Amino acid sequence: MLTLSKKMLRHVVAGCAVVTLALTARQAQGAQASNQQRQARAEARLQNEVRHVLVTQPFYTVFDNLAYKVEGDRVTLLGQVVTPTLKIDAGNAVKSIEGVAAVDNQLEVLPVSPSDDQIRRAEFRAIYSAPGMEKYSIQAVPPLHIIVKNGHVTLVGVVADTADKTLANVRANTVSGVFSVTNDLKVEK
User: Fold this and answer.
1) How far is it, in rounded angstroms, from Cα 61 to Cα 142?
2) How many CB atoms within 10 Å of residue 167?
3) Is pLDDT above 60 for 131?
4) Measured between alpha carbons, how far is residue 24 from residues 10, 28, 32, 36, 59 in Å?
5) Are 56 and 136 part of one and the same domain?
6) Which range of residues forms the domain containing residue 139?
7) Are residues 17 and 94 part of one domain?
């Protein structure tokens, strides 16, 4: 019969404890990584849901900018809208998405101005009637948005290439009554 000394027995027990702790730590790391992956997937799903809900708003036009930020289960709405109805509808629609705990609706309602309305129409005609730019106007939700506030124009959205970004900027600057044009258009990757 094999007998172990007390000292050897302590080493064996200590070794088993170290192995057990290492395995437990590895399992905890695996569970934490799995939890982080699950959270990332949930946030990506939420991003897609929020985008879908916003672009399908019935009164969303080329003159509105519906932007958003998702942080966990909280959504912040950013941008500008022409009508207060769209601000309210967008906020309510995002609140109804499963998994959204809170919505911070920071959408700015642009001031009512007949002069800005004229500029909006003129900018639309100037930009979307340019040769090569009609491809953007035939989409259900045009990717190039024209925001007008007190005579100042901001172009937001996405265009296919740098030439389209430059053309939109040049055309936007030809409209009379405009104080400034800010070109925040992004070029597709």
Assistant:
1) 8
2) 17
3) yes
4) 21, 6, 12, 18, 55
5) no
6) 114-187
7) yes
Mean pLDDT of 132-152: 92
Q: How many domains does the chain have?
A: 2
In angstroms, the Cα distances linking 65 to 60, 110, 135, 145 are: 8, 11, 20, 7
- The reply to whether 92 and 13 lie within a common domain is yes
122 and 47 assigned to the same domain: no
Shared domain for 104 and 13, answered yes or no, is yes
> How many angstroms separate the first and last alpha carbons of the chain?
74
Question: 6: Cβ–Cβ under 8 A, 6 or more apart, which residues?
Answer: none
- For the entire predicted model, the pTM comes to 0.77
Question: Hunting for tokens 């959205």 — which residue is that?
Answer: 157
CA gap 127, 147 in Å, rounded? 13
> Which token pair is 47?
């991003």
